[in-house]
Amino acid sequence: MHFYEVKAMSNIWYTYKPVDTILVRGADDDASSAFSIFPPPASTIIGALRTAYLFQQGIDFVDYKNNKADQSIYNAIGKASEQASFAVLGPLFLKDMQIYAPCPAGWFYQSEKENTDDNIINIIELQKDNIIPLRSFSQKQYNSIYSSKPIKAWPKKYCDKMKPMGDKYISLDDLLNFKNKENITLYTHNYFFTKEPRVGVALYDNRNTREGKLYSFSHYRLVSNTALLFAITQDIGLGSEGMMKLGAEQRFGKYTKFTNTILEQLEQNEINNTAYYHMSLSYNQCTDIQNSILAFERIVYFGGWDLAKGFHKPMTAHYPPGSLFSQKLTNTIGLSL
């Protein structure tokens, strides 16, 4: 299911701090070459939460997969062969007690600087008037870009000084209170995490080494004072803090329950339901939602681990974080611009 209704105070927020790097594998659109993706998809976090819950409850994984656990376990997290009984909102970034979200795809900013190197610059400070949300285009306020339908055009071909915001991040306060702001700050990924290339030896299914076969992935490391932030949409009986393994290679970290006033505003905005459109906080599978897409960056392919089958899931296409939709979907927040 892609749809769910947000209820008052239904979301329970957690921070997650890995002790080392995180690796989540993806694939190109032909599914023939692999790469790593970050932040981790909500589906990866859901799998990690289900595993952490089973560990805390002392449930044998074989019994769980074979539907031999107590029914209360399946009521809390669902069956291994089915989708989880809860959804995840996020992940966002938490750094120095400030919360950051992906910038909306379809939002653009005007910059006088040419050839900005995001590997060097972490912060971009702008006046609000230099940011153009998607709604401005639909109202045809700018003669160089217009469309009678939701715009999906890449605007750089029309204006050299127009730059997409879809690969940047923005504070949740700036995003939710955009109308009341005079200055807006954008952040590149370097502000939150770094990439570390790694090379390893490929293995057979029995874990024996494949002679002459190497693989390469980028691992991701959060910078100092930074954590992932996510919510679950219902109480599953998870402890207020604990250890959780996230991503490939069984990397682990600590999760902790978290509260914040800006998150309370986010919850209230969802309850009021005055959104002009909805922005995804993680990856949304493309199936059955094409008619609601307004703007998006490059589609990403990944699968995940099927706990019931004990094997990788088939690769599927996903709209990336920051994608804009005309209706409420799983793991989206409403924007009033």
Furnish the topology, listing elements before pairings.
Layout: E1 12-18, E2 25-27, E3 34-36, H1 42-57, H2 61-65, H3 71-77, E4 88-95, E5 98-102, E6 108-110, E7 123-127, E8 131-132, H4 134-138, E9 162-164, E10 169-171, H5 172-176, E11 183-187, E12 193-203, E13 209-222, E14 226-232, E15 241-245, E16 252-258, H6 261-272, E17 277-280, E18 284-285, E19 293-295, E20 300-302, E21 305-306, E22 311-312, E23 316-319, E24 324-325, E25 332-335
Antiparallel strand pairs: 1-14, 1-16, 2-3, 4-5, 4-14, 5-10, 6-8, 6-9, 7-11, 10-11, 12-13, 15-16, 17-24, 17-25, 18-23, 19-24, 20-23, 21-22
Protein model, in words:
With 337 residues, the protein is α+β, with helices and mostly antiparallel strands. Helices cover 15% and strands 35% of the residues. The chain has six helices and 25 strands.
